[in-house]
């Protein structure tokens, strides 16, 4: 399976600044000057672990908790390389289906491209229940009350400004069926999402920290689950 590093410039900056800090520490001869670059190398390692492995472990647990029956219609917002989509697709059978929507921006995830995600789908053998769509999550090309479940992993925080994020949440609410669930994994703006969903009338909005598998250096992934 092809994977991508989330916001790839972040670990690159950690590593480059860490290298510069190491050079400064070596030339200064002071052992305490090694602490800063060591911390940056640790952050880079944590970030890469979560992006390439931990996130997938987390998504596997979250999808298991969704208790899918196998015939749901699911939308994955900002699907990227399809981590959420693939885990869900493996639990579906026709007429169940999962649609992965993205604008395929490489700044959000390295190697982000529809062709690479389609290759992941084909390799996993779930093409019969999976579909990829190029689209903007603030203007979803689907009718009202269309999906049983809507999910998003580390994608909505990339939508800027705040008004656009709020539009993305409103669109997710619009296409979700009554009694359907919205599941969001994110590192920023989670309280913002929770407040808006409460105002929209979603019931049982819960938020929890994801633990070590969701740690992007100093940023912790949180899991939001809401019922319409």
Describe, in plain words, how this protein is organized in 3D.
It is a single chain. The model has no long low-confidence stretch (mean pLDDT 95). A seven-stranded mixed sheet has the order 3-2-1-4-5-9-6, with helices on both faces. Strands 7-8 form a two-stranded antiparallel sheet. Helix content is 42%, strand content 22%. It has helices spanning 9-28, 35-66, 83-89, 114-124, 162-175, 190-200, and strands at residues 73-77, 97-102, 130-134, 147-153, 176-186, 203-209, 215-216, 219-220, 222-227. It is α/β, with parallel strands linked by helices and 228 residues long. The protein has six helices and nine strands; from the N terminus they run H-H-E-H-E-H-E-E-H-E-H-E-E-E-E. Strand 4, helix 5 (162-175) and strand 5 (176-186) form a beta-alpha-beta unit.
